[in-house]
Design goal:
Elements: E1 2-8, H1 14-24, E2 30-34, H2 47-51, H3 63-74, E3 79-85, E4 90-98, E5 103-107, H4 115-119, E6 123-128, H5 131-145, H6 150-169, E7 178-181, H7 184-207
Parallel strand pairs: 1-5, 1-6, 2-5, 6-7
Antiparallel strand pairs: 3-4
Helix pairs in contact: 1-7, 5-6
Catalytic activity: uridine + ATP = UMP + ADP + H(+); cytidine + ATP = CMP + ADP + H(+)
Subcellular location: Cytoplasm
Pfam families: PRK
Length: about 210
């Protein structure tokens, strides 16, 4: 089993990198764990209070549960991933039953900020993208997928997203084994190198 952590700023292209890895590998042998499902559930707060949570700060993540699930999968145990709604800012009743596979990908903006979680990764990746490009993607996603208006998205970007990126996310790049630039030509080359590294590590584990 190989555990890969993929971090990067919001809108940096992490999802695209994951899809490219799945394309190059046997997708049936890969599972993806999204940090977005591990935001802390705070039902004691009103919707208005939950709406004001700083979702770009590490303390918003239930790292204990995330580490517990990754460790369990590494031990060959199945887990029930939570499902988080960014519309209601709360966990849903349903869960995702997830079985261990040869490759586990853990992706999210903050997955390289937790030291204990990093210890569970065999390969650590950071996807780098221009800040303007990331903002454009964030605006589109939050409006189209999360029901936000433009003013709300830009306000959140200025007050929390940008300063949190500078304080926590960008520095976590220093822990990465591989940094992938989100430019089409260089990105494709980096993905091929990454796929080769993954295959080699899997082969070395099976021959031990």
């Amino acid at each position: 089993m190989l555990v890969i952590g993929i971090a990067g700023g919001t809108g940096s292209g992490k999802t695209t990198v994951v899809h490219n890895i799945l394309r190059d590998l046997n997708a049936e042998s890969v599972i993806v764990i999204s940090q977005d499902n591990y935001y802390k559930d705070q039902p004691e707060l009103s919707f208005e209070e939950r709406s004001k949570i700083n979702f770009d700060h590490p303390r918003s993540i239930d790292f204990e549960l995330l580490k517990e699930h990754v460790a369990a999968l590494k031990n060959g145990e199945s887990v029930s991933q939570p499902v988080y709604s960014f519309i209601t800012h709360s966990r849903q009743d349903e869960t995702i039953l997830t079985h261990p596979q040869s490759v586990i990908i853990v992706e999210g903006i903050l997955v390289l900020t937790d030291a204990d979680l990093r210890e569970l990764f065999d390969v650590k990746i950071f996807v780098h993208a221009d800040s303007d490009e990331r903002l454009i993607r964030r605006v589109r996603r939050d409006i189209q997928e999360r029901g936000r208006d433009l003013d709300e998205v830009l306000t959140r970007y200025q007050k929390t997203l940008k300063p949190m990126h500078q304080q926590f996310i960008e520095p976590s790049k220093n822990y990465a084994d591989i940094i992938i630039p989100n430019m089409k030509k260089k990105n494709s080359v980096a993905i091929k190198v990454l796929s080769t590294v993954i295959k080699e590590k899997l082969n070395s584990k099976t021959t031990v």
